[in-house]
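Example with several molecule types.
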Amino acid sequence: MGAAALNINGHVVEIDGDPRTPLLYVLRNDLGLNAAKFGCGLGQCGACTVVVDGEAVFSCLTPIQRLKGRKITTLEGLGSAARPGVLQRAFIEEQAAQCGYCIAGMMMRAHALLQSNARPSDGEIRTALESNLCRCGTHMRILAAVKRAAELLRETSSEGRA
Amino acid sequence: MTAADRSTVKRREFVLGGGALIFSFSLGVRAPPAREAAPLPGSLSRAPYLDAWIRIDAAGKITVFTGKVELGQGIKTAILQIAAEELQVPPLSIQLITADTNLTANEGYTAGSHSLQDSGTAVRNAAAQVRELLIETAAQRWQIDVARVAADQGRIVAADGRSTHYGELVADNLLHVQAREESKLVAPNQFRFIGKSIQRVDIPPKVTGAAAYVQDMRLPGMVHARVVRPPSPGATLTEFDPTQVESMPGVLKVVRDGNFLAVAASQEFQAVQAMRKLASSVRWQEGHALPPQAHLASFLTNLPADSATVLEQNAASGGSDLKSAFAAAGSRTIAATYTRPYQAHASIGPSCAVARFDGEFMTLWNHSQGVFPNRAAVAEMLALPQEKVRGIHVEGSGCYGHNGADDAAADAALIAKALPGVPVRVQWMREQEQLWEPYGPAMVTKVRAALDVTGRIIAWDYELWSNPHGTRPGPAGELLPARSLKHAFIPQTPHVQIAPEGNGDRNAIPLYDFPNKHVVWHFLKDMPIRVSALRSLGAYMNVFSIESFMDELALAAGADPVEFRLRHLSDARAREVVALAAAKFDWTRAAMPRNHGRGFAFARYKNLAAYCAIACEVEIEPDIGRIRMVRAVAAVDAGEIVNPDGIRNQTEGGILQSMSWTLYEAVQFDATRITSADWSTYPILRFAAVPDSIDVHLIPRPGQPFLGAGEAAQGPASAALANAVANAAGQRLRDIPFSRERAKAAFAT
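Resulting structure tokens for the full complex:
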């Protein structure tokens, strides 16, 4: 059994165990990070989505042996309930959850989009989220929250410049 | 004693024993009160002591208990708002405990849009009575008139300036008293929390990765388990050799009992690998034949049926009856048949539970909608007394009815029983969730109506074919794993029952004023595919059928669909939601752009709960059969509104979920196996097909009873969509789902 050093939310952690283990199980069980969820294990629903080097990936399909030296961000890396980040604030403002099981994956997919595109159009947001499923029918609010997050991020960055 | 004898005897003991109440809950019947009196409000009738609902500790900390559970519908927040309003404290200062068999009232299932009616009403009345008790106690202590004492922000305050906090007044079981029938409720014009869109308390943890679900539980020493299910329903295990799996890294135990097979390991991925290995090393004899999918409708209508009259109503005057109305001179008869396939709850998160057995007591953390009835089922399965099994609700992924939650809890219990002292977490795999949940039943409806020369419906004859929509546990035979055991528990034989809330016949009675109505449920006992409650039960299909057919009749009568509905609708609140939805949509009869259509539909959920009218616009692409809802407008009257944004969220979700069912969803199967095993073989709504906008308009009804709103949109949304498609294409789709193949074929004619 090999070990891997993973860079998760800015911290380097040593992981023991089978190097073929999908990142999802390591995040949830070894590191106690709840956000990424098991949905299908097949890359069909997006509930497990995290961001690796700026790209949204399915953590259920990504073995840890492929992640050495890469920067992994999970929803926990964006803030906490006590100090929510901008994207989290936007989802709270828009009340963009019902059961919420899909939401962490949606938010990480949105995070990857907003990192590369500060002014996504409605169509670009939909296209980015196409790989993620929601069963409660919260789609309208998720779209609104991502749009709101983009606005908040632009406000924050313009304040930063001023 | 055979397995069947054993379970029969057990079930009789169960019904005669402590389980009797639970049995009656499943029939929707309340236990008769001990004395002749008006029933207490809401679930107070089941748990009449105030401290079953509200407790206050010496420091003044308030805890509210509800037997209902959070399913993502926002019930926690709504209950807190209600309690806070009556107790005169901020909502977030209250601790809320949801269904736990050791702590809360048994409120049966969290289902049928009942939570506010049952639990909200109980909490509201209990909280108001607690407040008045505190006021009376303080007034006595201070020797002043109660009129000079008030509750405010957790303190009881006298007009002369004296004050004390709630905790100082609650000694000596003050709250351990039976509720009175009447409560002094806060008047709607004084509301500070009820009627406000307070942010949901469960959302911040969900959007930040805090522990929010049973899936997130990590008890000390917890291990992970997976079950191995057969390839097809009814298959039996014929060859089994656990030795290879037992030697795999981390594997702790292979559990087998009859056809029940599971493996536990230290790490989750080890359990998944062991499950795969085990699945590939065992042999099954395939189960019974499944119905012919290509001829499902005729298969269903030819099954033996117990036919029950849901309604027979003839015009009081003129001696008219159904037969003579259909034969009346000048009347025109129109008929149509509609079908719905088996459809899945298909929760995004596979079912999960954590169980711990200490050798005597079993604790089950699970996301069942009914932890009390499920506790009874698991206790029966394990041959444990009910009081030795504790069920604690912890949120799971949205369930939308009876999904795999109860079965996963039973799986966990069986594995934990084999590993005493060790907490066991079981989560189903995607294919297990898709293949083994109880589906929403396939249905067929046939409707026939007569229009008179003035364009009024004078006769309505409606038949539906359906299995029962409720096979929830209570009895162990309704648990999937219990059916697999060597001493198998058998499912109970269902019986047709016509009740006000309806089941397969939910919303089968149109709310319209037709002089002659006849509604029959051809109740299908045989369940060749396992089925149970899917959100709104038969209402989705019955409203789809009734409201599609209303448009067919409007077209035949040359009438505008909205005006045609109003022509037959005298219920004032119904008329109001219809008019509001039409106005906010800018409903007109003006021509739509090519390949666009508009559609309208209305229903009052269960004919007892919230009123909902929906107008929508669709766009079709005839060449490829693609249908997209462009926009929707809904109007809802849910009685007293506790949280407007909560109702909007539920309505938006109901519209989109119903749209997904209606456009895409059908469980696929071959002669022996279900083949819809994942999201590629059971596709649902994706973002590309999401409408541009959904607007929900609420009609406030201060002071009126709560009318459950969680499932009001599913029926009307499907029919509004169907009607808009017919308006766009000039061709009507009557078979759900409106797949591209079906739509393309219909649009080409």
